[in-house]
Amino acid sequence: MKKISIFSLLISGLKLNFLQASWNFERLQNIGFLFSIYNILKVIYKNNIDGLKSAIKRHIEFFNTNIFFSSAVLGMISRLEEELDDSDPEKKNREIENSKIGVMGPLAAIGDSIFWSAIKPFALLTGIGYTYLMKFSFESFIYGSLISIITYNIPRIFVKYYLLMQAYYNYQKLFTLLQKIEFQHLIKIIKLNGMIFLGFIMAGYFYKKDLNLIPIKLIDNFLLIIIFILIAMALKRKTSISNILIAIIILSVFISYIIG
Amino acid sequence: MEIEKIFLLSIIAAIIELDAYYIGMFLISQPIIIGGITGYLLGNINAGIIIGSIVQLIWINNPPIGAFVPPSTTTISFISTIFSIVFLQTLSNPNKEAIFMFSLLIGIPAGYFVGQIDIWHRKLNVKIIHLFEDKIKQCKASYLVLIQILSIFVKIFSNIILFLLIIFLGISLAEKIYLSLPLQLIRALTISFWIMPIVGLAVIFNMLYSKEGARVHWVIFFLFYIFFFLTKGNINLNFFIILTIILGFVISSYIVIKTKKVTK
To answer: Which residue range(s) make up the domain with B187?
Structure first.
């Protein structure tokens, strides 16, 4: 018999926005997770204070996963808390702990790679690209920001709530579902598309830019392409961005003093 | 500059900065957005957008994964925008590019310092949690809410104090330093700023890099550069942006499907 309503699940999903509010170096997102799941635990252990106490003890321990994929953990754990028998608290504790630890890692890996290395840079690139091409005008700022926010938040909201529902209602099929979505290919498509759009932005930026160091635009652009390739090569060799910035400033000072 | 405006801006920036890690991560804390808002409120939105977009691109590859605490790009953009707008307003005959670069050089350490404050803040959270852990275990849920609110409050409060300190103490000092710079250094700042957008574009190129991607990128770049040159830039950009994205999805899907078939 189900005790948790969709409404309670959605409330918990919304509370997951505060998952990292009290992030700490000891148990990472533990307070955020407990804060999110607490209303569900209260419903499940309505007449069982000892059950609630042991559930709190379980969930105040270490927790760390991707913030958007954390909804899958929340959905699955809510279902397990509800379904597993209270007669053997040790067994229940062990099963929930193991399930939580088992899903946190893979979900963090998938979530981090899809959001931080594909969707977020692509969303920002489209917005900034628009602003660059429109020469930093007020309208370009408004439209560019909206493009970025919408491109990023639609998959974010969809993934979060879809996984929450799937993890609660079909928790046994969660990993089959995740395997069906070919994340590697999806990331590759987004990254390739980002590269194509970057080529377009660079062409437009180089053609339209006002800030030229050398009056002949073609030579100015040629020089910038060489600098672009050098920086890209340095970044590929894991040179940190702060070292690159320091090198640029030192070289600029050097060139400036040579020019006189 | 009006003190009330600085207070208001610092509060807005500190609240928006929460979105970078603490609440939601809706993307509203991104440097281009905070730069634009700061520029708009100070009457020079163009400066805010330019600085914001450069900061955005350069530090785009800074995800807060696990225990890694990146520098605060919101702070870099906010501080750099304020300093550049103030300098552009107060200095006579200002060199715009040199001022932008000089302001970035002030904003960058501020952003790294906010990152360091975040590390201290997370250590403080451990102590706060230990303080209330027993109460939480006794089912007193209000302490959970209290920990969350305390943490958010500490973040906002420390940011506001830091922003106000940097702005009030830093502006006159930075102005004096800038005015004392020799002409060669001002020119060096202009040269550095000329390269900055390229650094940002190279960062994103490196982030999205794959062999096929790099090849397609250069083909698209040269084709469109020649196209812009031939049409003298008189094209409907909105149409071409949409066209490139659609074309991008078609090409990338084709490449991925082809790779899948080869792998099978």
So the answer is: 3-208
